[in-house]
Amino acid sequence: MNEINQEITSAMNREVAGDRAFGQDSAMGKNVLGYVCKYTPIELFESFGFEPELIDTESRDFTCAETRTHANLCSHAKSLIEAAPNYENLALVDCCDSLRRSFDVLDAAEEHEYLALLDLPHEREGCAKERFASTLGKLCDQLEDFTGRAFDAAAFCASCASANERAAKLDALNALAVSAIGEPFYAVVGARVSPPLLSIIREALGYPVVNLTCSGNRVLEELPPSAETLNREELFAWYANALLAQTPCMRMADVTARRALTEHPQLVGIIYNTVKFCDFYGFDHWELSQQTAVPILKIESDYTPTPQGQLSTRLEAFRESIEGDIVAKHTQTSGQTEERGGCVSSERFYAGIDSGSTTTNMVVLDNQGNVVASTIVRTGAKAQNGAQAALDDVCTQLGVTPDDFAAIVATGYGRENIPFATSTITEITCHAKGAHEQQPQVRTIIDIGGQDSKVICLDEEGHVTNFAMNDKCAAGTGRFLEAMARTLELNLEEMAVRGLESKQDLTISSMCTVFAESEVISLVADNHQEADIIHGLNKSIASRTSAMVTRVKGEAPFMMTGGVARNRGVVAALEERLGDTLYVTDEPDLCGAYGAALFALDGAS
Amino acid sequence: MSAVVDAVGRAVTAQVPKSPTRARGLLEAAYTWVNFSGKVKRAQTMEAAIDHFNGSIASTIVHGIRHPEEAVLVNIFLPCELVYALGLTPMFPEGIAVYVACTSCSAVFAELAEQRGVPDSFCSYHKTMIGMVESGVLPKPLLVANTTLACDANQVSFRRVADFTGAPHLVIDVPHDPDEDAVAYVADQLHGLAHTLEELSHRRLDESRLREVMAISRRTRAYLRTYLNGRGNVTLPTTCTGELCNFIATHCLLGHPASERYARTLVEIETAQLEKQMRQRQAERQAAGRKSEASKAEASRAEAGERVPRIFWIHTLPNWQHAMTEVFDCAQACELVGTDVCLGSLYGAAADSRLGASFGQTSEDFSAARLSAEHIDDPADVAGFMERMFLEDADADPYDLMARRIVYNLANGNGRRRIYASREAALHAKADGVVVFCHWGCKQTLGLSALAKEVFEEAGLPTLVLDGDGCDGRSVSDGQMVTRVNAFLEQLRGRIS
Question: Which end of chain A, C or N, has fewer beta carbons within 10 A?
Answer without folding.
Answer: C
